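Intended use. Records like the one below are meant for learning the mapping from a protein sequence to its folded structure. Do not use them to infer anything beyond what is encoded.
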Amino acid sequence: MTTTLIYLLESGICLLTFYLLFKLLISKDTFFSVNRTYLLSTGIISFMIPMFNYSAPLVEEPIYSFPFETIVVSVGNIEKTVENDFSYWEIIAIIYLTGLSIFLIRFIIQLLQIYSLIRKNGINKIDGYKIVFSDGKFSPFSFFNIIFLDNSFEYNSRTSQILVHEKVHIDKKHTLDILLFELITIVQWFNPIIWYYKSALKELHEYQADEGVIAMGFDKINYQKLILEQISGAGLFKMAHNFNYLSIKRRLTMLTKSRTRKLAILKLLMVIPLSLILAISFACSENEDVSFLWDDIHDSSSNKIARDSFPDFPGGWSARAKYFANTIHTPDEFIKRGIPGKVTVRFDVMKDGSIQNARVAQSVEMGKEWKRGELGFGCDEIALKAIKNMPKWKPAYYNGKAVDMTMTEIFLFGDDKMKQEWNEFYRNQPNWIESRSYGSSMPEFPGGRSKMIDYLSSNLKYPEQSRKEGTQGTVEVDFTIEPDGKISNARIAKSISKELDEEALRVVSSMPKWKNETSNKAEMKVPVQFKLQDEKSKVKSASVPSTKNVRVDQIDEMPQMDIQKFIKNFKYPEEARKQGIQGTVMLRVLVGPDGKTSTIEVVSTDNEQLNESAIATMKNTTFTPGKNLGKNVSAWVTVPVKFKLQDKEK
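Structure written out for the chain above:
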């Protein structure tokens, strides 16, 4: 609905722009037919322009990936879901739909009124005119090819001008114009410009009808007097053409006005560039260049990992950590607040290794949600300065060529006590996956990240049983780096199967000593992906799709999901409930720029009976789309859905 409301707003802006052009430059000209065409065409064009969606050609559309918090779905919390949780957009949508319904009912009532007049009084044919005579005092009007007159109407040489006037309306099919704009008014009822638009169109109809009467040879002065005599009649039917419905003064003025010079018609050409400007403003979405693509797949046949290199700080992770330890300090004013916080800075590592386009993407205070924008108290300026003053990096490489790539650094601000509080607070939070170390530098695999990936790829062996059964997926392994660099306490953070878990643990545990220049332990996490090359293989635990042709990048705002609504729309599988089946289904969902889900895949599941319900509910879920540099982008989100029965139902 959000997309629809934005579309209506954009079409309203188009109507406003075209109407202002008409009012300022065109409305006083005597090109009545041309002006009528202008109003009709721009009224339609205003609804077409926002529909255009041009995107600059890309190597591949950037798609981003984020983990989502676990959604716990139980019988209890389904029943207790809050029913009146309306967003601002939903409230606006309700107001809009209410107005639309009112004006639609009004439109139908007016049609029924005209139909009732015809049915009640019948149609008379006089001098070739179809006329309906009715009780009540109202101004003559026409609707399609029928003229409506009150019973007091007397036909003579003077009043015949009224019939000629209405006949012009009929011949020029003005009723079709009015019906079109009545429908547009129903859709744009909230927009005051549409009412002016409709009024201007009806006024042009009257100018055309007046012009037609004079063209038939009637005296202009007598006709003007006749117009003034009709002022007392009431205009009952707003969709019909009442004889005196519009401003009498403007009609009389236009009857005596000199014809506009033909060259003035060239002003209408301004509608062409104006339409192009509006189309570009609303519909041309300029995408970022996809500058770095990579694939990190474990090949079951060759035990190789196909990939290109990431940008590297000169000297590696350890040197980078030392650099930031010397350049990042927490302002005293921020320390006085006593609440630690983080700042996310995005920057581009160019082909020549230089740093450009550094900007604060988001920030967060301990215990709060991430927000777009700055942390404040000078922290953002310190982080930006540190990024901008970095030495040249070793650039990223793809297909043997240096390429641009966007990188992200996250800085924690606070004194030692505040940082300790931060780490303790988030130590057990499942959504915060990060290394935890209290020293000034980060442990590093010998040779850096790329060497670690080489090590894992060359030492991993696909278990034969898993290969036969088609089991694949990503195993996440947590481990501890001791002060001397040894690997200890490797454990499974996310399981796929016994065989794959054991192989991932074996390889991680056998890694050589890391460089650890601190005197502290550090907690680390590494994902180990197993993927079979045969796409037709039976998959017991569906794999996370590879990031091939996917931009490895971060975005300013990840997609947001209304978890309460998800739960409210959710149905616990009846068979699973009867059998007491519980567990977690891990979904990987592609959220488009419009917030709709286009691809939903099962990453892992505790029981296949739960999959269908999780997928069906996710299909009907609309997200707030992810944003990057102010534009909506496609993004993958990983959503764990936990099925949980109440104790009495287990």
